[in-house]
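WARN retry 2 of 3 for item q-0093 after timeout on previous attempt; input resubmitted unchanged.
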Amino acid sequence: MRSLTSALWHAYDRDVLPERILQFGSGMLLRALCAMAVDSANRAGASAGRIVVVPSTPEGVSRGRAVNAQDGLFTLVERGLSGGAPMERVGLIGAIARSVDAAPDIAARPEVRVIISNVSEAGFRIDAPFPARLTDALHARFTRAPDAPPVFVIPTELVPDNGPRLEAMVHQLAQGATFRDWVKARVRFCSSLVDRIVTAPPPEQHAALEAQLGYRDALLAVAEPYALWAIEADPAELLAAFPVAGASVVVAPDISFYRERKLRLLNALHTATTPLALLAGVRIVREASRHPLLGPFQERLLFEEIIPATDLPADEARAFAHQVLERFANPWLEHEYRVIATNQEDKFRIRVAPLIVRRPASSGFALAAAAHLTFLRAPLEALGDAAHIPEFVAATTRWMAVLAQDGVEGALRCT
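OK item q-0093 returned
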């Protein structure tokens, strides 16, 4: 079987488009959402440009080699339920130009207008490599092309106010008042939110898809139909430099509604459910949707505890919540709880604990917290702010005893 190369590309002339975007990270979410958005804009004639990828992990280095071997191309398979009906789309994404080892030479080019990142919540800290690498890249632009047009830095890590947080880290790391002044004048840090479930197909599904396509693709990704990239910026200013407006992209001066909706109704539900599912031996998200106890628990937690703990408009929250449950039930996605459990402790503090603080008497939250502590074998302090609410700690401790004696199914029967 032949390999995927540019010989199979026919959609538009990629070579005439400038390398306008520098991207830290090569994971599936960036490819299946951000690269897809750029590709869609290019197909529509907007000339959004092409992406140069800089790997951010050892696994990313291997993906970078695959990016170059495949001339930046990869296949995106979109499968899922839309309004209860199955749908499928398959297409090549051509927005990525190449992968390089270092960012400064790319960042120094005046035609580069956008820097995107997704290095995970764990990598989004001042003591992690990414902020220093970004600062070095911006310093290269400062020294080699100080009068270049402003560059927009758009982090996509699921961290509240990720734009201002990254800006603060860069200013702390930046050496010299002149450089810091240049960053303030020439760099726009834009908070953003990404929302799409993307998975690597298991080996047998990967092989079947390649047989269907007629070529080998080491970067093949399977995603749900739903996609949203919300970017907090002045729409006219950003879109003049980065014309990606489309069905999956929202550019607005304030994206707090989109961020809160996704963080609480989707991510908090995932994080609260994951330890219960794993302790019950449930491996895949869709299996929890069909589980006779976990499925109803998720619905109760979402509609009776999570939504009332937010300030989201009730009708809009409930409509999105029903969509979330449909997305979780997607029969074609191998969305594994072990992957969702990565950085579980940090995720619980960011996503779930603020909801508990607002509704500490909620029984479902207490059971979820008990499973969280049991799964991690963690102390009560791992609950973040919720650990300072005596009645909630007492309820969580009682649920931990139930889990130890009766297991997850026994606990769920008591809810």
